[in-house]
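During the reporting period the student researcher (J.K.) took over the structure-prediction task from the postdoctoral fellow and processed the backlog of single-chain submissions. One of the processed entries is reproduced below for the supervisory committee.
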Amino acid sequence: MSEEFYLSKSKKLFVRKLSRYKFIIFIGFFWSVYSTSVSFFVINEENCITDSNIDNSILEATESENYSVECIYEQEEIKVLKNNTICREYTPNQFKYYNPNIFTMPYRKNMLLNSNFLKTAFESKQTNIRIFFRDISYNALLLFFKLIDKSDIIVNQIKIQDFLDILLILSVLDIERTKESNHFIKELFRNFIFEMQNSNHVFDLQKYYNSYHYKYIKKSILIELYIILIDLISFNDKIGHRYTVHHETIASNFKKTITAYSFNSIHAKSLTSKIYLRLNNISISSLHKIINSEYLMNTWIFLLNITKMDLIYFIFSDKETYNKSIKVLSNITLHTEKLYIHFFEEPMKFFINKNINFFSENLKVLKLRYNFTTEELKNILRFCNRIERLTIKTYYIDFERLSLLVNFSMNNPNISCKILGFVYELPDIDYEFINNIPRNILFYFENSNRNVEYKEIPAKYMPFFQNYYFHYKKILNSRITIKPELLEFSRVKSVTLDFESNSSPYKIETSVFNMLRCFKTIKYFSLQNIVISNELLLYVLESDTIKILTITKFICIDKFRYISENETLFNRKLVYILLFDSLTEI
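J.K. obtained the following structure tokens:
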């Protein structure tokens, strides 16, 4: 009985001590949270202090009052002086002083839409968290706090600049993507659309392009705006926005006999800042519905104007889509780094008869697909003298088109040109002409038809003329061969090895991989009816060019253990391994 009593008493003492410790920890956490404040400093031209109004006593800051603050704006240092005066070095040894607007509130857990910025600052034991906003209005900050409390209230037409200021605030706070934040952005944008009904609104785009908003508003937030607008236009058609607006993310797909392994997770951090816009017959038809709605068209144009795209891809599959696109995109400058256009109709209407430049200064890469006439090609090239890379995919190339493209490359040595043609009708070109072809242009003979025999480009035309595809189809006891002297110049992009005629999956010899290593430009590697060996996987993982590996009808002996056992071997360019029709369990 005494033992039971002793144990019971010890247990009670332990529970009391544990409760006491829990209480102390809770009080400590409670005190740390509620003793932490968050101050928002707004500096802009309105509160900038002129030289004549700077009090010398302000500059005599004590060491405790004069310290550097980590600022979101790159290569800038901000100092807090006496009386919260802000000093900013905007150029070397050139300073500006501000009497900032300041708003202070106590720190709360998950405050302001789960701000990662505030969370990180709090976890680093900061008791006075300071956030600096430059070139936004104080009214926009107050409006942001008002909308945070009640995001579904109707604000009487949010002004364009206030809207952009709030987007910058959200970007600086680095809000988490949650149901709450999505709802806030949706209601903010809904209120902003009311402003677009005001046909008299004036906004200085050039000033915006020189502002911090253009540089620092997060693309993930802009993507959300595009999705909201497309949902509104297409009546919440999820397929519509999924295939129109793309944000690079981790992707993997598993279907019956088709398996796709994605390797994008390796680059997940670097991919979160990419934004793509893909417009085809479905999305263009949806956008065309708003052509008579002035405020929705104004919203669409405004979004295109404020967004620095990474890639815009147009696919015009028929005449109706093409004509609609001309109306939807009239008088719009495309602010994108890369632009891909696939034409099925006469392309020049898309570029001419515009009151503004169709291409922005941001454009670096232009890819066009159409069977251009010589005159069309001549007109297109007039728009291309400021880009870095030009790719033209066409069906027919004759000597006249060839000469035009060569002359363009000679006159623009800083532009890298790639021309892909299915049919080259060229007479015997003399050596002098070939010798004058500049190094910044390459011609590819693109023939992916498996029934057409692979044709080697004559040595005299290399390295300026190349095969895009190398396709080998095994017949009886034939071997893969290619002239060694041509490997030095080869720039083959796509290689297919077809062993379909074999009665069983074929194991590729070592000599084949040694030959493939001589191809320094392979992006797409396709195999049929093979044994997936460790040697094959080693070749793919060692490559620094292969982006997609496609294998159809195969046997895999060790279920890809080789990849997991050799993590240090990794092809950073590899995006997908696509597997079709496995003959064994994977």
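The committee noted the following: DSSP finds 22 helices and 24 strands in the chain.
J.K. will present the remaining backlog at the next meeting.
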